[in-house]
Write a structure and sequence with these properties.
- The complex is a heterodimer of chains A (318) and B (337).
- By secondary structure, chain A is mostly helical.
- Helix content of chain A is 75%, strand content 1%.
- In chain A, strand 1 and strand 2 form a beta hairpin.
- In chain A, helix 4 crosses helix 11, helix 7 crosses helix 11 and helix 12 runs parallel beside helix 14.
- Chain A starts with a helix and ends with a helix.
- Chain B is mostly helical and 337 residues long.
- Chain B has a single domain, classed as ABC transporter involved in vitamin B12 uptake, BtuC (Orthogonal Bundle), CATH 1.10.3470.
- Chain B contains 14 helices and 2 strands.
- In chain B, helix 2 packs parallel to helix 13 and helix 4 packs antiparallel against helix 5.
- Classes of the chains: A mainly alpha (318), B mainly alpha (337).
- At the A-B interface, helix 6, helix 12 and helix 14 of A face helix 6, helix 12 and helix 14 of B.
Chain lengths: 318, 337
């Protein structure tokens, strides 16, 4: 029994999965509406943007850095994609490609500044985040772009039974990320640098290169999140991304990523986003004050951090 | 006051690099500020009007204290993302104590300061006990604090505060707003704390090297907790100053908006993120720079929408310049060695 216990707690996301299953069971019992097709659709759709946002930060945590500009970057890309389609009449796919590229470039800027100046990534991305938000607001004057192509909006609203079309994107990204971090040299190098930058350097890896690549990837993911948010809302709101900061850190940390770097869990992050989505959904179904979500998110992060430490101590003792 | 090693005078007396080497960050900031003021007042005569200076003074006073709230934690090498959350909690607590409970103003001020201190204490204890990075702990506690406040108050503002609060917000001694006097008084107290008291030196020692401080007998855990208590009190003070300026307690005006200003003022002013060095005067100048940019954009009718871009660019420029300066100093030392 004891052996089983210690084996179970070795799988990082086992507890999270159990909590998610319990939450689903509890919600099914308490609220019959939970399993209705429409609610399932709403719930699944609420996960799409959050997942990409969480991955965007998770990549940074993997390399031992952080990115405070994810929300601002996503908002800027949202406005770019909206502006391209609305004001300039660019067709959907080229607009998405350009917007993704813009996100990647913004990420490269973040990475280049961090590496070149040797200044804490926290302060660099705080500054660039402010700059991105300023460009966004300066261009749009806080006025959204509404006239988006019909096919784009239809994709954002479409569904197959309870499954939203949008969900395809984060699912593909999840698989790609798993392959990237477990099978590709670049991905392994990022984790190596995050785990021990000095040792990685002595083994002939370039920490600077890994950090720049991680920032570029983080920018791409944040851009994808911004584009998805536009598709979901049906309009390019300049306020997109303004509330992403907490969730971007909460999900990977609850999912078991170490802030020190080198250790991330894609499954854990996914389950954490599901759990947060369940909490938000429960608040709506049970008509509880939505402010509780903010409160519970803080409590969850603290609990997760504390549990992770406890587990680290347990596993270390074995 | 920056705790730095004295820099040997460079041989080339009047070169640009020489000036960069000798001048402190604070001096550089002062030059930038003077240039901005001259330019702004020549383009827009309204900049130096009594009205504009008064509103500038009142907003800079609050920015200064927000910057201090972050600075005291930066000194120990940590950070406090909950400055804004403690701020909004304090705004609403202050409003509640005055309007609903009808407490006398001094009692309400003391109680709000105490509440800010208590929230800071919780942060400090959580950081020291769990050994978890202050970034994560304060990110989580910010969510906890503001969530709890919103649940309790439902974000309904308190508009019927005693008139004395609003009057104090508008009051001025000669041309100097009363709020600015409060900020300067707090600044002097912090200056004395960091320069002349054991606690201040311990805060900096912990920031410079936790291990070395521990070995020299500094109670590291207690010192970090005290820094967070101070930070909470300062955030509460800034919150009450904001309440006085607006003559109402509104949750929407504080909070997330404090994150950037709280880091801008100390970091531009030369407080090291790594800890161990603070500059009270630099933080004041940094806050002044932020408010000058804001007021200048307003006067030039560029619009507030571009403000974040300018603030971000200035922050980047400031850290790049500081980095370049550090490199120059290092190169100079190597050459002389």
């Amino acid at each position: 029994m004891n052996e089983l216990f210690s084996r179970v707690i070795r799988v990082q996301w086992s507890g999270l999965l159990a909590v998610c299953i319990l939450a689903v069971l509890a919600l099914t019992i308490v609220s019959p509406n939970f399993l209705s097709e429409y609610n399932a659709f709403v719930f699944l759709r609420s996960l799409c943007v959050s997942l990409l946002v969480a991955y965007s930060q998770m990549v940074m945590l993997g390399v031992g850095q952080m990115n405070l500009s994810i929300g601002a970057l996503g908002g800027l890309v949202a406005v770019i994609v909206g502006g391209l389609m609305d004001a300039w009449g660019v067709p959907t796919l080229p607009a998405i490609a350009i917007a993704l590229a813009a996100g990647g470039v913004a990420g490269l800027v973040n990475g280049w500044l961090t590496v070149r100046t040797g200044i804490n990534g926290f302060i660099v991305t705080l500054a660039t985040g402010s700059a991105f938000a300023g460009i966004n607001l300066g261009i749009t004057k806080a006025i959204p772009f509404y006239n988006l192509p019909a096919d784009f909006v239809a994709f954002g609203n479409g569904r197959l039974g309870p499954i939203p079309n949008l969900l395809i994107v984060p699912l593909i990204v999840s698989v790609l990320l798993v392959v990237f971090f477990s099978r590709t040299v670049t991905g392994r190098h990022m984790l190596a640098v995050g785990g021990n930058s000095h040792a990685a350097e002595l083994s002939g890896l370039s920490p600077n290169k890994a950090i720049i690549e991680a920032h570029a990837l983080s920018g791409l993911l944040a851009a994808a999140a911004g584009i998805l948010a536009v598709a979901q809302l049906g309009s390019a709101q300049p306020s997109i991304g303004a509330d992403w900061l907490i969730i971007s850190f909460a999900a990977p940390i609850i999912g078991g990523a170490s802030l020190a770097g080198g250790s991330i869990s894609i499954t854990g992050t996914l389950l954490a986003v599901v759990l947060i989505g369940l909490i938000q959904n429960a608040m709506v179904l049970l008509q509880v004050d939505p402010y509780w979500v903010t409160f519970l998110l803080g409590a969850l992060i603290l609990a997760a951090v504390w549990l992770n430490r406890y587990r680290a101590v347990r596993v270390g003792e074995d | 006051m920056t705790v730095q090693e004295p820099i040997a005078a460079p041989s080339s007396k009047w070169s640009l690099s020489g000036l960069l080497l000798r001048g402190s960050t604070q001096f550089g900031l002062l030059v930038i500020l003077v240039v901005m003021w001259v330019v702004l007042s020549s383009i827009a005569p309204g900049f130096l009007s009594r009205f504009n200076l008064n509103s500038l003074g009142r907003s800079v006073a609050i920015d200064i204290v927000i910057g201090f709230a972050q600075m005291v934690v930066l000194a120990t090498g940590g950070m406090n993302l909950a400055v804004g959350a403690i701020g909004i909690c304090s705004v609403m607590a202050f409003g509640y104590l005055l309007q609903v409970l009808g407490l006398p103003i001094p009692v309400a001020i003391a109680a709000t300061l105490l509440m800010g201190a208590a929230m800071g204490w919780l942060n400090g204890i959580a950081i020291v006990r769990t050994g978890v990075n202050s970034f994560v702990v304060t990110l989580a506690s910010a969510s906890l604090f503001s969530g709890a406040m919103l649940i309790l108050t439902r974000a309904v503002p308190y508009n019927a505060l005693p008139p004395a609060i609003g009057e104090f917000g508008k009051a001025a001694v000669g041309p100097v707003p009363a709020l600015l006097i409060v900020a300067v008084a707090i600044g002097i107290a912090l200056y004395v704390l960091f320069r002349h008291t054991v606690l201040g030196r311990e805060l900096l020692a912990v920031g410079a090297s936790e291990r070395a401080a521990q070995m020299s007998g500094v109670p590291v855990g207690r010192t970090i907790t005290i820094a967070h208590v101070l930070s909470g009190m300062l955030a509460a003070a800034a919150a009450m100053m904001l309440t006085a300026r607006l003559a109402a307690a509104m949750p929407s005006v504080a909070g997330d908006d404090w994150l950037l200003p709280s880091f801008l003022a100390p970091v531009i002013g030369g407080t090291a993120l790594a800890g161990g060095a603070v500059s009270v005067i630099g933080t004041v100048l940094g806050a002044l720079l932020v408010s000058t940019i804001r007021s200048g954009l307003l006067i030039l009718q560029v619009g507030n929408f571009w403000l974040p871009l300018f603030l971000g660019a200035f922050l980047l420029a400031a850290i790049l310049l500081e980095r370049y300066r550090a490199l120059l100093v290092q190169r100079h030392r190597t050459r002389n060695a």
